Amino acid sequence: MYGAMVAARMRVTCTVAMVLLGVNLFSAAQRPTVDVAAARRTGRDEASRALARHVAGMQIAVGYEGKPAFVDAYGDADAVTHRSVTAATIFHIASISKNILAGVIVRLAEQHRLGLDDVITKYVPNAPTRGAAITVRQLLNHTSGIYSFTSRDDAEANEQKVLSHDQVIGLFKDHAPEFQPGTSWRYNNSGFYLAGMVVEAVTGRPYANYVQDELFRPLGMNSSSLCGTDDVPALAGGHRVAGGTPTPTSITWSLPFAAGAVCATAADLVRWQSALESGRLISRAGLTTMRTPTTLTDGSQIDYGLGTRIGTIGKHAVFGHTGDGGGFATMLMTVPDARLTVAVLTNTQGSPPYDIAEAMVRAALHEPRPRPRDLEAPEAELTAIAGHYDSDEGPVDLLPCGRRLCARLAGINQDLPAPRQGANEYAVRPGVDARFDTAHGEPWAFVYGGGLFMDAKRRVPRSRP
Q1: Per-residue pLDDT at 344
Q2: What is the CATH number of the domain that holds 445?
Q3: Domain membership flag for residue 14
Q4: Alpha carbons 166 and 174: distance in angstroms, whole number
Q5: Are residues 302 and 403 in the same domain?
Q6: Residues pairing with 61 in the sheet
Q7: Whole-number Å distance between alpha carbons of 77 and 57
Q8: Do 228 and 305 lie in a common domain?
């Protein structure tokens, strides 16, 4: 993206910026032709392949021009009873909840009930900031530096518990900060948990009640709620694949809270995006704030806004979020200039279904995926980016292998080639690529899946002799 990628990065940033600033890249006559039928056919084909790969069930919704275009359902809501997924089946949307929480906080900011740059201890006095001036904004863009409770060795065990706010804070309050606020980026569930507590402090109401009364009901999101341990009618069961078979799994959803415990149908997520785009929830300026990339103190730019992943498919800016946990994997993607939204919900934990959403968007816009390349990498480029990288998603070693880049993952005794696609850009696998920024100190590896930003891994400083 930077260094040798500056020109390419500027083209992408310019495209995204014009959309953010309300500049219509297409006049009415030039607006992209959207082939909804092609998207539906592609979704059907992709769902069939996913079910063959042992995904239990899936629900897909597409919105066009602010209205639901179709909802399709596939497979089992419960792999044991073989209860079928229908258009009314409710799924845990996992971290897509973060996009909703960010919208809630931007709305409260526009109502002058809080400030995005207020320090969080103004609302949550016991937030473990260790004296650092961490802001509400930094909770929402993953730059707070607070230790994330999902990084603990006992994270999965904690997901089986019902915990109070004080107990959850106890999971991370004694851990040293990952970095000083605003200086780096690391995906952080503790930050979004605290953001939910900010909403409760400002409104004086439980987060579940506030979003139900102030968002979901007024917006017609009648299937949506903050799910806890109570039974929810028509709720799909979560699954993991064990021995090639979807096997039921579950968590209490107490720990994810506002960061990941919303339940909804795919159609309700289309309604959510329509509300954001139409201005019914927040202003155009507020939406721009949510969709503006984050700039760190050293100038590094991360394609994550406020609870929003950012990217491009072809010439189109795309925004959305993913979810993965508790037996569910989910994807929400919107293409503003085409007025197109795709929501894909599955009840089998694994990689978020970004490949399905991307394939549907490309089919709708007649935007084929570029042919993969395998270019020879300059030695200087390989030397500049080689090293040990780390993020919340785990570490990886990148090393030259001939005139190519190879990745060595923990626990895998094999070097995996990453074919070079262009300057500082390498394919991890089909639909997933890593783009390197070498212009701001230790290099960043920005990972994109299905066109959307997924993760930022930074090289660990090399030891000096």
Answers
A1: 98
A2: 2.40.128.20
A3: no
A4: 13
A5: no
A6: 71, 343
A7: 6
A8: yes
Concatenated DSSP letters for 368-426?
PPPPP--BPPPHHHHHHH-EEEE-TT--EEEEEETTEEEEEETT--SPEEE-EEETTEE
367 contact partners, CB below 8 Å, separation of at least 6: 313, 314, 315, 316, 361
**Would you give the distance in Å from CA 444 to the centre of its chain?**
18
| Residue type (1 letter), 137 | R
DSSP classification of residue 212: I
> pLDDT, tens digit, for every residue of 377-392?
999 999 999 999 999 8
Instruction: Pick the closest to residue 124 from 143, 146, 142 (CA basis).
Output: 146
The answer to whether the CB of 337 falls within 8 A of the CB of 32 is yes
356 and 430 together in one domain: no
- In the block, which residue shows the tokens 């090289």? 459
> Which residues fall within 8 angstroms of residue 130, CB to CB, at 6 or more apart?
177
Q: What is the pLDDT of residues 166-209, one digit of tens each?
A: 999 999 999 999 999 999 999 999 999 999 999 999 999 999 99
Task: Report, as an integer, the average pLDDT of 251-271.
Answer: 97
User: Is residue 261 located within the same domain as residue 175?
Assistant: yes
59 lies in the same domain as 102: yes
Cβ 144 vs Cβ 182: under 8 Å: no
Domain that holds residue 41: 32-369
Output Rg (C-alpha) for the chain, integer angstroms.
21
**Final residue in a domain of this structure, among 369, 390, 421:** 369
- Please state the domain count of the chain: 2
Together in a domain, 358 and 390: no
Amino acid at 280: R
Does residue 48 form part of some domain? yes
Within-domain flag for 3: no
- Block residue for tokens 């207020």: 118
Residues 85 and 132 in one domain: yes
Element (H, E) at 428: strand 425-429
- Token representation of residue 392: 């919340």
